[in-house]
Amino acid sequence: MHTQNSQIQTGARTSSELPAEQNALEALNSIAIVTKWKRDQEICGQESSPDHWYRVLSGAGRKFVIRANGQRHIVDLLMPNDFFGFASGERHACSVQAIIDGTTIACYPRKRIEALADTNPAVARMIRGKAFEAIGRLQQQLVVVGHTKAVDKVGALLVKLLERQADKRTDDFTLPMSRYDIADYLGISVETVSRSITDLKQVGMIALRGTRKVRIVDRMGLEDGEQTS
Prior knowledge:
Strand content: 15-25%
Distance between the termini: 47 Å
Radius of gyration: 18 Å
CATH architecture of the largest domain: Sandwich
CATH topology of the largest domain: Jelly Rolls
CATH class of the largest domain: Mainly Beta
Oligomer: single chain
């Protein structure tokens, strides 16, 4: 982990952010510690004390649990501007690791951010909104995983990943995670993930350039599961 105490530059402002959120982020910048993480490096651990809240500035992360049998289950994929680290108890229920080298995270001491929220309504509203967004991502995962067929699960996930890209003007995106991460997110084998991606390409739903570059060709078909009809 590389740490710097300078003011946040990356991710502090985007054209889609409202002035109130910009002001809230500027207030948070004053207490943030910016950290950089290598691929697979743990940012916070399962059962660790929730002393900090976090925001992804660049890169990506995986939020996961290790089951009693040693199997990993990914419960959330964290992209730029996502907050994480909220906990209702005295321990984190999940671990978070970086999945891209150089992933940049803003760390906020929990006591300081809670005190700031008590005195700054804009900060309080933003934190509440980010917590709701985290709940929404979990609900979306249930919808994606709820598909009966594996190829439909993979197709639905690709659409959700496209929707979370910063550039909304294109149907092209780079997969931020490996096929192993996709498998552990969807609860299927990595071989099934690879086969499903190949099937989606063959029926013309997606196009691939290399192993990570994806273009959504038929978004409606992916959303409707027409590739399996």
